[in-house]
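Me: I'm a chemist; would you kindly supply a protein sequence with its C-alpha cells?

Assistant:
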Amino acid sequence: MRSLFCAATSPSRPAARRGRGPGGWRSAWGASLAALLAIVPAAWAEDLPEYRIKAAFVYNFALFTEWPADLGPVLNLCILGQDPFGKEADELQGKAVGARRFAVRRIGTRDTLDGCQVVFIAQSAIAGLSRVLDAVRGHPVLTVADSVDAASQGVAINMSAGQAKVSFEANLKSARNAGLNLSSKLLRLATEVYQ
C-alpha cells in the first residue's frame, strides 16, 4: 500500500519547488492532505493499526504548520507518556518536514519538554495536561493529543477515531499563542476550530 506519510509532496521535490500555479507547493500539500483523509477509511478497512493512521496525521499536522524561521533544522516530536504509536512513530524518524527533519523522542511524564517542537500527549499523560501546557507556554510547540475535550482545554490539535475514520479538531488560539500558524487548508478539514 502507498505510504500514508505523503512523501511525494515534500518541498524538496523539484515539482513542488517550481509550484503549480496559485499556491505552489502548498496547493500540492493541500491535495495530499485531502488525499490522505480520503484514503483513511480504506486504510482502516485494510486493518491498518489506528496509530499508524494517527502517526500519518501527526506528520501532516507538522507539514501544515508554519514554523518560526529561526527554529533550526530539526523538529523534535516528543511523545509524552506511554507511547501508543510504537514502531509507527519510528517511521517518522528523519522524515522531511519542509526544510527540517523529524526526530522522535519518547519522554516520561516527569521529563522536561525542553527542545520539543511537537508534543504528542498520550492518554496516559492527559491528567497532567495543565502542567504540560504551562511548560510549553510561550514556546513554538505544537501540542497534539487524542483525548476527549483536549482541544477545548488548550491542546492545539486533538484527534479522535470512530466510525472507521480519524478526525481532528483544532484550537487556533493555542497555536497562535505558541507563535505557530496552522494552514487554512488544514483548518478546513477540522471537525471544529476553537478560536
Summary: The chain has a mean pLDDT of 83. The two ends are 37 Å apart (CA to CA). Residues 161 and 167 are 6 Å apart (CA to CA).
